Amino acid sequence: MRDIERVRELLPAQADPASSCGAGAALSPRAEDDLDALRRTAACVREVRPGLVTRRRILVSAAAATGAAAATVAGYQLRPAAQPRTRATAFTPAVLHYVPFAGRSAREVLLDFAGRVEKLPSETADGPYLYRKEWGWWLNTAGDVPGGVASVAVPTVTESWVKADGSGRQRSAYGDPIYPDAKQKRAAERAGLIAGKGVKNSMYGPGKFPRQPEIDAWRKVGPLSTDPARLAEQLKKVSWDGGHIINGVAAMLDYASRSGPVHPQLRAAALRVLADSRSVRVAGTTSWQGHKAIAVYQTQTWHGSTQRASVLFDPATGCPMGSEDALFGNARKLNVSVPATLAVSEILSSGHTHTIDGRP
């Protein structure tokens, strides 16, 4: 699942991220409806002012690097907006609907969650390969094209098999590109915004799996502690995507899962680290595939713009199961109708297997 720190200039105006904002593999009716909605022309038309600077979102990899939390990494290249006073239309599916836990603080909810997870029985790995199948899409946008702003979303289902030594396989099946503004289709293609086409099947030797440098960074901090204070210190030694502690925790749990199922005590310690953070908020939600989830999220405001980065946790296991980047208020240089989603991901299946093409 995204260098949030680098894309702050594109974020929307301040709003209440906790408010109600909308309600390959076979997808749930909601996912299908959302993707169908992307194909329809939006009613909202915004202006791009002269001299604005925007960024091009380009998909780098769709790895199982941070569990479901940050399953995909997107890079951003700074480009000037070349066309003044140009109008463009863009639309994204609705953001997830969050329901706050009435009368309970984020700390109280997370500590209770951790207590329940800690009591779960430990699991054993059935094979050396961590298998993960996940669905997601990313709104790739460029503001330096003829006509102003061009965007593309490419629904993708990615399967990965990875061993503890960083070797493995990744298979990505790309859906048909969706152009929020059909008039910008050619410009988007020329700008290189298409995340991928058809099916891509890649093999990796030891230490070569996507985002292996980040995995190596986790390895250097030593055995992960189940003491929340010590685990928090280990987290500080590794730079996580966008500076959000939720992404750091998700990345840490993904690293731990490569050697086998993550022990309940470590999952509980991770939740307690989040509970000790003053920057996180918690809400209940339902995922795109119709599963109940606990959303742990952080908001970032920059020049009157707010972005909500979320990690979805399975309430039964305490494992990350998805992620969402959502925008609220004025989308500014992204030129999309808001509230809007920039990226979503959800794990469809996970487990361990004995072979590089097996499935649990």
Write the layout of secondary structure elements.
Layout: H1 29-39, E1 45-48, E2 53-61, E3 65-68, E4 73-80, E5 86-89, E6 99-100, H2 106-118, E7 129-145, E8 148-153, E9 156-162, E10 168-174, H3 185-190, E11 199-204, H4 212-220, H5 228-236, H6 245-257, H7 264-275, E12 281-286, E13 292-302, E14 305-313, E15 320-328, E16 340-353
Antiparallel strand pairs: 1-5, 2-4, 6-12, 7-8, 7-9, 7-16, 9-10, 10-11, 12-13, 13-14, 14-15, 15-16
Give a structural overview.
Helix 6 (245-257) packs antiparallel against helix 7. The chain is α+β, with helices and mostly antiparallel strands. A hairpin with a 6-residue loop joins strand 14 (305-313) and strand 15 (320-328). The chain has one domain. The chain contains 7 helices and 16 strands. The longest helix has 13 residues, at 106-118. The chain is 20% helix and 34% strand. It has helices at residues 29-39, 106-118, 185-190, 212-220, 228-236, 245-257, 264-275, and strands at residues 45-48, 53-61, 65-68, 73-80, 86-89, 99-100, 129-145, 148-153, 156-162, 168-174, 199-204, 281-286, 292-302, 305-313, 320-328, 340-353. The strands form 3 sheets. Strands 6, 7, 8, 9, 10, 11, 12, 13, 14, 15 and 16 form an 11-stranded antiparallel β-sheet that branches. Strands 1-5 form a two-stranded antiparallel ribbon. The protein has a two-stranded antiparallel sheet with strand order 2-4. The relative contact order is 0.24.
